[in-house]
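Obj: model holo form, ligand = NAP.
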Amino acid sequence: MTLTNVNSPLTLNNGVEIPCVGYGTYKTDPAATATAVTAAIQAGYRHIDTAMVYRNEEGVGQGIKAAGVDRTELFITSKLWNTDRGYEATKVAFQKTLDRLGLDYLDLYLIHWPANEKQFGAEAAKINAETWRAMEELYHAGKIRAIGLSNFMPHHVKKLLETATVKPMVDQIEVHPGWTHADEIKELQAMDIVVEAWGPLGGQGATVLTNPTMQEIATAHNKSTAQVSLRWVLQQGVLPLPKSVHVDRMKQNMDIFDFELSPTEMATISALPNLGGQCKDPDDVDF
Ligand SMILES: NC(=O)c1ccc[n+]([C@@H]2O[C@H](COP(=O)([O-])OP(=O)(O)OC[C@H]3O[C@@H](n4cnc5c(N)ncnc54)[C@H](OP(=O)(O)O)[C@@H]3O)[C@@H](O)[C@H]2O)c1
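Output (holo structure tokens):
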């Protein structure tokens, strides 16, 4: 696997190719989203990650149109929010997402969070199974090129696989220095599921980018701590989704293919303590 730029493809378990770095849009102000997405596409990103709950799908769609790049060259992901779980509701929510984006298909659609036992008791697994059944139907109907999960830990995935007829192609989980999910990544990859890293820079307010160890490694490579963080994600075979509304940072976050972290540097970063981020346990959330 030789990755030379953000659009070098990884291949999903259904044969669909996905650009190895995506552009994130969480907390991008809806009013500023179109401009940011157009700028990201002009900077060279072809893979855009949004979600119904970000309230900016319309802006993403407008930004895509304004960029003037052929739809087939883009890889667009959105996610089903928690209030829309279940067989019928999922199909309705998916169509609304398509309408807001102004698209007639998605490249990837994810269940944003698993229904958990804390909220739903024994019903949780059934809710996830029914939601997935609708995702499978939309996939078979050709409305989505790939379907997947987000914030599902391996035990949620295994439970889902008991009833699934289509194996998820992707699982998007929080991964950054200080919140590694190393065992989960290995387990998901062993299931032939591509892992995407949300919050790959530690998210807003995290201290990943100012950590002295990160700074030392960044200086050694003449790179920024953001670039080191993204490279550390990528070298684990994980697909990072950096978000920035600033063009210089968008470009900086793409420029991660001309250096390599040594095994020692990888291990040093992996051993960092918790540096902040959202760090939520999907079995403990109450939303
Ligand atoms: N599935 C989920 O549950 C879930 C949850 C959260 C996020 N996500 C997805 O993952 C994407 C990334 O996560 P995230 O947005 O939470 O966090 P992130 O990408 O780790 O970090 C974004 C923060 O870092 C700043 N930043 C970006 N590039 C920088 C650079 N080169 N140097 C210094 N600061 C930089 C951004 O500020 P500026 O914008 O001001 O540059 C922003 O404050 C999201 O946008 C979303 O698409 C998914």
